[in-house]
Design brief:
With 458 residues, the chain is an alpha/beta fold. Helix content is 37%, strand content 17%. The protein folds into two domains: 165 residues, Aspartate Aminotransferase, domain 1; 281 residues, 3-Layer(aba) Sandwich (Aspartate Aminotransferase, domain 2), CATH 3.40.640. A seven-stranded mixed beta sheet has the order 6-12-11-10-9-7-8, with helices on both faces. A four-stranded mixed beta sheet has the order 3-4-5-15. The protein has a four-stranded antiparallel beta sheet with strand order 13-14-17-16. Bound molecules: pyridoxal-5'-phosphate. The site of pyridoxal-5'-phosphate (PLP) has 14 residues, from helix 4.
Length: 458
């Protein structure tokens, strides 16, 4: 039997029609094994999804227990104990954020769309039907369904779909390596200037846009609390959310925190918002909420806003077949129970601190490595053609996709992004290993990455 596939082999519509795909056989912890017997270190959990590693039998058994009882009922007709227990668990975790009602969707993109619709309906129900515009950030990513794509600050993703894309307002994403008020290429100096001047710089940009458009037309501001693959895991500058939150309150703009990638423990706290004392109106989870066991995403909202909807229009009008499905609820509930019972977050801190500092110590001086940053179990490495000027490689060189293939050939899985430097050029990889990665696995991850960078030729 053939152990790899390349289009037109088989009948799957393969994602890349020029790539050869190994057939994966099984996974265990941070490792994956393909049918040819090759072992991979999964340093990105796919697209930062497999937060609890691969082949976790305890999780599968817990989900199966619920699925054997009942896997599907429609959320219009029933709720289930799995759904109620999941909502209780999430509401308890989100109590400091004042979010206490939960709805489930089947992907991050869908949950983002639901969050945007929730904000819009809330303004209609509050009696402000003019408030409909959305502000998002560039670079940024909120998904690939049409409105989530419209909200995504990735110009190159929208090229083909241009005629189908809706207009969404945009401000800059905090992105330390290319912070416009810093000319330095010294990592410490960049950080100093970014944290000193960043909050004012980015808040002023947002305020200018709000004033230009008119706050009475703006419904919501959507952002990734910690930017994911779009900037390579850059955290916001000090005081950023304090200023942004004040602006949104003053202008009555709802805040939607997209934590599809950075939530569910990825940054070391369950919600990334907890690092910044941020209290968004709506928070979106996905990826790590399901740890890769089945597609589940969620929106978390406030009871006071749901009460407004109850009196005005009887409920949130968004509807999809799998909302609140018991199988999805059981998956997310099993993930949360597992994390709580095994103290996954508490135990992850020592490893992530070691991993992040060693990544910087061992990789920063290597060729092409412009910047390394991150928080918790997420890190980004930006590659440049010229380290002194931070000049990116021309996009035509395909640095990031070629590097990712090179790493995969060497048995290391990382996740690429490109275009972040100026909308066209710019290459980075993002890492997001299992939150249960051990110290020695962290060292192995760094050693493999170092070898991949050292042996890569563009
Ligand atoms: C921040 C963020 N939001 C939304 C999405 C979309 O999620 P999905 O691919 O599950 O639709 C992603 C996916 O990468 C993401 O990183």
């Amino acid at each position: 039997m053939q152990h790899t596939l390349k289009y037109p082999d088989g009948h799957t519509l393969l994602r890349n029609l020029n790539k050869t795909y190994p057939v994966i056989q099984e996974g265990k912890g941070v490792y994956l094994f393909d049918e040819a017997g090759k072992k991979y270190f999964d340093a990105s959990g796919g697209a930062l999804v497999a937060n609890l590693g691969h082949g976790n039998a305890e999780l599968v058994d817990a989900i199966a227990e619920q699925m054997k009882k009942v896997a599907y009922v429609n959320g219009m007709q029933f709720t289930s104990r799995a759904m109620e227990a999941l909502s209780d668990n999430l509401a308890k975790k989100a109590a400091p954020l004042h979010l206490d009602r939960v709805s489930l969707l089947a992907s991050g993109s869908e949950a983002v769309e639901a969050a945007i619709k929730f904000a819009r309906q809330l303004w209609v129900d509050r009696g402000y039907p003019n408030k409909h515009k959305l502000i998002s950030r560039t670079p940024g990513y909120h998904g690939n369904t049409l409105y989530a794509l419209s909200a995504s600050g990735r110009p190159h993703y929208k090229k083909v779909y241009g005629p189908l894309i809706s207009s969404v307002l945009s401000v800059s994403t905090p992105y330390g390596y290319r912070f416009p008020l810093s000319n330095s290429n010294d990592a410490d100096e960049i950080l100093r200037e970014y944290h000193e001047k960043g909050a004012d710089y980015y808040a002023q940009e947002l305020e200018a846009l709000i004033e230009k458009e008119g706050a009475n037309t703006i419904s919501a501001f959507i952002f990734e609390t910690v930017s994911g693959s779009s900037t390579g895991a850059w955290v916001p500058p000090k005081g950023y959310f304090h200023k942004i939150e004040a602006l949104c309150k003053k202008h009555e703009i709802l805040m939607i925190a997209d934590e599809v990638l950075c939530g569910s423990g990825r940054t070391g706290k369950f919600f990334a918002a907890e690092h910044y004392g941020l209290k968004p109106d709506i928070l979106v989870l996905g990826k790590g909420l399901n740890a890769g066991l089945m597609p589940v995403a969620a929106i978390l909202v406030k009871k006071s806003d749901v009460d407004t909807m109850k009196s005005a229009s009887q409920g949130f009008m968004h509807a999809q077949t799998y909302m609140q499905a018991p199988s999805m609820a059981a998956t997310a509930l099993s993930v949360l129970n597992y994390m709580d019972q095994h103290q996954v977050l508490e135990k992850s801190h020592a490893v992530s601190e070691h991993w992040l500092s060693e990544l910087k110590a061992h990789l920063h001086a290597l060729p092409f490595v412009g910047s390394i940053t991150g928080i918790g179990h997420m890190a980004g490495i930006e590659f440049v053609e010229d380290k002194a000027s931070k000049k990116p490689f021309p996009v035509a060189k395909k640095f990031a996709p070629k590097f990712v293939q090179h790493a995969q050939d060497q048995g290391l899985i990382v996740w690429p992004n490109y275009g972040q430097a100026d909308g066209v050029n710019g290459d980075l990889v993002i890492l997001g290993p299992s939150l249960q990665m051990t110290m020695s696995e962290a060292d192995e991850c760094i050693a493999k990455l170092k070898t991949a960078i050292q042996t890569f030729q563009i």
